[in-house]
Predict the structure.
Amino acid sequence: MVRLHSPLAVSLSAAVALALAPAAPNAARAESAPGRGPTVIAEHGMVVAQEAIAARIGADILRRGGNAIDAAVATGFAMAVTYPRAGNLGGGGFMVIHRAGGGDTTIDYRETAPAAINAQSFLDAEGNADPQKSRESPLAIGVPGTVAGLALAEAKYGSGKFSLADLIAPAIALARDGIAVADDTADSLPIDRPRLARWPASAAIFLKTDGSPLAEGDRLVQTDLADTLAAIAKDGPQAFYAGPVAQKLAAAVQAAGGVMTVDDLKNYRAIERAPVRGSYRGYDIVSMAPPSSGGVALIEMLNILEGYDLARADAGEALFLMTEAMKRAYADRAWFLGDPDIVHVPVEQLIAKRYGAQWRATIDPLHATPADEIRPGAGMIAAEGRNTTHFSISDQFGNAVANTYTLNFSYGVGLVAAGTGVLLNNELDDFAAKANTPNAYGLLGFAANAPGPGKRPLSSMTPTILLRDGKPYLVTGSPGGGRIINAVLQVIVNVIDRGLDIAGAVSAPRVYEQWKPDQVFAEPELAGDLIAALEARGDKVVAQRQPTSANSILVTPAGFAGAADPRTRGALAAGY
Ligand code: DON
């Protein structure tokens, strides 16, 4: 059944079409108009991603009988080619998996700090945080996790119908044949041109000979990346973490002044972790555990909010209560959260219902609590002190995948390792370079998130699956740095408390509050009476557009309802 069916405009090259053969069962294709995202309903399976070609590749894997994990791996490799500002081989991320018949799990493929990184690495001579080092220099490059993570997901939870090589094949063809630069890449390349122009290997791919960026319709050909992908297809992830590719990656980083070595690459491991679990008004929440802060902060906020009848509250009051919950969870995020393999993170305490109630007792429904009066730990502890991409997938078997991965900034640090086609991240800015000093997203951190060798920097990525009676109900997540957790919270509240359909829940204007700075950032489209409700209670509201993109799926009686976030030009819900 297809509710909304835009005319078929398949933009796959002939080689990709070949790679995807044999043809899928005879099911109608359901797609949103790219970037405009009304709800799209599909009967059998759905991929909602920030880039259309990759979304269609994932949907075709589903049509051919693949499961959601197969589709996620194919989409993830494809986006490394088709969405270079955030899709990646040179970054990392998190995948939350719901398996039909039970068993939720997550793959942590977050980057790690090279062995030579320590608590002083991102300070200047005076001991102050040096953003240049943690954001713009190759010192910021974490050991990439994506190849290990996608390969681990496929090996453990793929359907077995496809080899890793089958799932990488479309990406290889797209990299080798080239794609026409479209929408979001055309929008972002001019902005990041100066950062890419610093490195000849990056310029050779993304800029023209006169130094101007590739523009809409120009061909983006990535031959070295095709070779790297082909090596992974042939020999598995070790082709990336050892041998010639690893040597080129380490050599390029070191030549540019960074510290990543072949040993760092050899020692990288993706880790399967238990998800964090919570509940909200009868729905089970399955989300990402540390080293992402997303799941813990999301469940904390939902626990606080569960004590209020948001569905019946005045809309302004409901929004205010949400921003108060955000402040408190983000204060805890800053203080307590870090890499759980290196620091103790009190996850169970933070996600307990009674802890939410403790926080709730500190909220005055008529007055905003100033950020400085919010002490992490609900008052029990005296505190001392740009770009990512998300896709959601559901399959006919009852599996679901929420995957968020990133290079941190758009195009990461801007460095393509010569001879590999791999753009490298600047993820290490997600550490607190110095205690109580904001990172690029204005997020504070303390000792728990200090830089250290082999450590994973704290993330805000929040790939999340809500279950009803043990079955996927909502699959969601978003890019947006520190705003991610806020965005995911609002999609959930919009669906469960406000009863919006998925397109409405995804596109509704959002607010973002992260404890400090002591401000509520509101998208410019937010209704004036809602802003007035916050201001009347003492909040400082700042209008600001935010790069979130909550590409989500709601499972409805009519089928899989997908919504591509209209905040990203080119996002697509592709189902069948
Ligand atoms: O892991 C994190 O939280 C960040 N590195 C994510 C960066 C991001 O979402 C940028 N996108 N707009």
